[in-house]
Amino acid sequence: MSPDRFNIALIGSPNSGKSLLFNRLTGLNQKVANFPGITVDISSGKSLTDLSTDYLDFPGVYSLHTISGEEKLAVDAFYSALEAEQLSAVVCVVDATRLEKGLIFALQVLEACRRYSTPMLIVANMVDVLDQHGMQIDTKGLSDALKVPVLAISGKTGMGLEQLPQSLASTIAPTEQLLFASDIIASDDSLTHLQAQQLANAYGPKGDLLINAQTRLDTFFLHSWFGGVSFFLIMYLLFQSIFTWAAPLMEGVEALIQMVAGVVLPLVPEGMASDFTADALFGGIGAFLVFVPQVFVLTLVVGILEDSGYLARAAVICHKPLRLFGLTGKSFIPMLSSVACAIPGIYAARTVDSPRKRWLTYLAIPLMPCSARLPVYSLLIAAFIPAHKALGGLVGWQGLAMFGIYMFGIVCALLVTAIVSRSRAEMRSDLPFVLEMPPYRLPSWRPLLRNAWNRSKHFVTKAGKIIFIVTVVIWILGYFPNQGASLGDSWLGSMGRWIEPVFAPFGLDWKYGVAILTSFLAREVFVGTLGTLFGIEGAEENFVSLTQQIQDSGLPIGSGVALLVFFAIALQCVSTLAVLARETGSWRLPTQLFISYSIFAYVAAFTTYHLVEFLV
Amino acid sequence: MTLWDLKQGTFATVSAFKASLESGYRTRLSELGFHPGELITCVMVPSLGAPKLYRVNNTVYSLDDSIASMIEVA
């Protein structure tokens, strides 16, 4: 580490307000830092006030004595950084309103820092809450007792933060390190909580801080009837939001693409260049970009639920029902995260401390309706379900259909885990369920909006790259050798007819077959490929939406629903397979899941097609 | 009597952990505040056997029967 650069580690328990503090210190300009040999994500950001200082945000852990895989990764990362002398100082964040618990952890960190001669500073966060209740924390007394600087701050309001740079500078200075070798730390773990209790009693706030409103809200949200009804209502609103409420934004993006196409296309020379711009760029990539607002809204709504404290209550509500399917209440958060994207869902499954339940959660995650399925669902629903609305526009048939297909994915996920957990005796044992209930709070909008924006950007750049390459390849194969005169006689047409018999049993022609094959790279590619294919075939002068083109193609409704079912089940995501392989340490599970879910998807789509065609 | 037997709105003091409780969980429960001598309030008993809510100091935790029945209270 360079002597004029400082790496400051932020470490603390979950719900200690560490991330909010990190965002305030770095102004949200974060990037993921790479530490060699570490698989856990540590955010890194430059200090807003001092560009020579980098803050490293370590994942929140309750203790340095780990009991779950996720904690072990985070704690190992912290020890590796200490061992490699990568840290100039450690800032341990404790919640001043729950000082005793925070101090147990702080004493463990203090002991670790002493062992590696790394300076440490304690920040007692959330003093704004103490202020509201007319309470105080004696930072001077605590600092004298522990022989480390203690600062009272609020990550939320910024109170006391102006003192942090100066305290850090004096902590890092060599003279302070002599004081640091405090002998207050217990060598015996069992005494740590006793010391923490004594320190909290002597210097912490005195009085009852748990806000009664929290208990009142818990009484409502965990009530047998109100709790159940509000749970389903909140989940339903989540699905309505991604379809009905994102619609104006999607129409805006579509109008923008049409406008740009109207300006750009006349400027491009006639012939191949013009065909490429219209079909591959505006047809293929444009069709995919329309769905970005939905990813934004979905990430935002899931973020609001998490930030408000409701997700932990949802885990309590779901614990008993999920146990019926071989899972635990802790599986709910990774499963809900998978509604945004399977990748964070797989990472979040580390919080499931039982390895068996975690394995079962992995089986459920690829079946959860992720946002990459959203463009496909939206396209097919818009093409086949009328846009009628009810209850003053609050509920729409399309939203209801979206809710239905999402529920279908979730039901499939639960059925799979129920069958597997019952067929394997070793899956029935359980680890206990202990979960902290964070206080209810109003979401902090800026980090939430930033997170939704980042996720959308990631969606565009990550999926966009694949879609661009696939679109160009598909366009070349579909355009040649006859310069777009007849798509059926193109190279792609010949290949498509070769694979047509595979998808013909559910009424799909070769164009859909090609789109499904390409979607095994990533599901969203389906929309881009179909957009390009219809673009080459139609050769319209104006930009026509893909929905309109599907409707005009006369695809039977049975095939549309069969496609929805196929996409709900099939594991068409290379990234999910790769991350699963990394997390489980082998390609065995991803390979098994890929093969079995592909067969399951095919059989279910075939059955659905014949059932719908018989009924309609 | 164990923590799981506590009725909503009542409180008790942790007396011991059952011998069969794994040491890792024993340590974690102590770190969370569930250590012998500590006063615990049962804040909420949701229906249908869902995990119950317990308050320790200023924090509320949800514990299911498999672990709450390992904590003896008096």
Description:
The complex is a heterodimer of chains A (616) and B (74). In chain A, strands 2-3-4-1-5-6-7 form a 7-stranded mixed β-sheet, with helices on both faces. In chain A, strands 8-9 form a two-stranded antiparallel ribbon. In chain A, a hairpin with an 8-residue loop joins strand 2 and strand 3. In chain A, helix 3 (99-115) packs across helix 8, helix 19 (397-423) packs across helix 25 (557-569) and helix 25 (557-569) packs antiparallel against helix 27. Residues 31-39 and 175-182 of chain A have low confidence and may be disordered. Chain A is built from 27 helices and 10 strands. Chain A is elongated, with a radius of gyration of 28 Å. Chain A is α/β, with parallel strands linked by helices. Chain A is 61% helix and 7% strand. In chain B, strands 4-3-2-1-5 form a 5-stranded antiparallel β-sheet. In chain B, a hairpin with a 2-residue loop joins strand 3 (52-56) and strand 4 (59-63). The longest helix of chain B is centred in the middle third of the chain and has 10 residues, at 23-32. Chain B starts with 10 loop residues before the first strand and ends with a strand. Chain A binds chain B through residues 62-63, 65, 67, 97-98, 100-101, 104-105, 189-190, 192-193, 208-210, 214-215, 218-219, 222-224, 227, 312, 315-317, 319-320, 329, 430-437, and chain B through 24-25, 27-33, 35, 43-44, 46-51, 53, 55, 57-64, 66-67, 70.
